[in-house]
Amino acid sequence: MSVNVRLSKKVGHGVGGGRTARASRCVTRAAANRPMWLNGAKAPAHLNGTIPGDYGFDPLGLGTNPDRLKWYQEAELMNGRFAMLGAAGIMGAEILGVNGKELTWYQAGAKEYDIPLLPLIAIQAAVMGFLEMKRYQGYKDKGVTGVFNDFPFDPAGMLSEEMKVKEVKNARLAMVAMFGFTGQAAVTGAGPVENLKSHLSNPFGNNIINSVLTIQDKLPDPGFAKTTAVQAVVDAAADAAVLTQ
User: What does UniProt give as GO cellular component (predicted)?
Assistant: First the structure.
């Protein structure tokens, strides 16, 4: 009987070992076939492909700490979601002509609106502060955030792995787009749609290369900023003198 027990253990160990070996080979094969940020690149050990949108890119080793890696993942999603909203708002307002020809997206904050600015900032700070607090609490308690995580009903499949990957991809694209929108506005003083129309009308004349080469001609006089700053100090001193009289 003891012989049979030992034999069964050996057989069981052999079967289990075979399964483990096959599983290991499958994981290795999947890791070898996974898309990478660069052909031939090797992913670091802490990026094993389990995170949505993981392409093995971490040259500085920022994600070696598992807890920090989760936080970086959450930070990327949060900033990406803001960027997606911002990019859609910038392009949507320009396409629909909401801003008007005299107002670009980066000048919207300087425009006078029917609602006073300070109460608007106070309301926004209170609402966003509450939502951010709930978001952080959800992350600390559950490790995930988002509206859909609180609802078990998901007929559209928004919590599927495919949708998570799509969200990360679009978030990264939107962050790059916002960087481009800001650079375009600083150089050309126009919005993305207007810049696109300008490029399509004259591709060889209106492009990033010519913009970089002629950026010095588009900048204000070098003494402009200094003169403005000095004038601002003088005006402030004059106002203070008037108030003290």
Answer: chloroplast thylakoid membrane; photosystem I; photosystem II
Q: Does 172 show up as a binding residue in the annotation?
A: yes
- Consult the annotation and say whether 166 binds a ligand: yes
Token pair recorded at residue 211: 């913009």
* Domains with residue ranges and CATH for the chain: 66-219 (1.10.3460.10)
pTM of the model: 0.69
Integer Rg of the chain from CA: 28
For residue 81, say whether it is annotated as part of any ligand binding site. yes
pLDDT, tens digit (0-9, with 9 covering 90-100), for 153-188? 677 777 788 999 999 999 999 999 999 999 888 888
Tokens representing residue 25 in the block: 């080979």
**What secondary structure, in 3-state letters, does 89-140 show?**
HHHHHHHHCCCCCCCCHHHHHHCCCCCCHHHHHHHHHHHHHHHHHHHHHHHH
- In the chain, DSSP finds a helix count (H) and a strand count (E) of 8, 0
199 is in an annotated binding site: yes
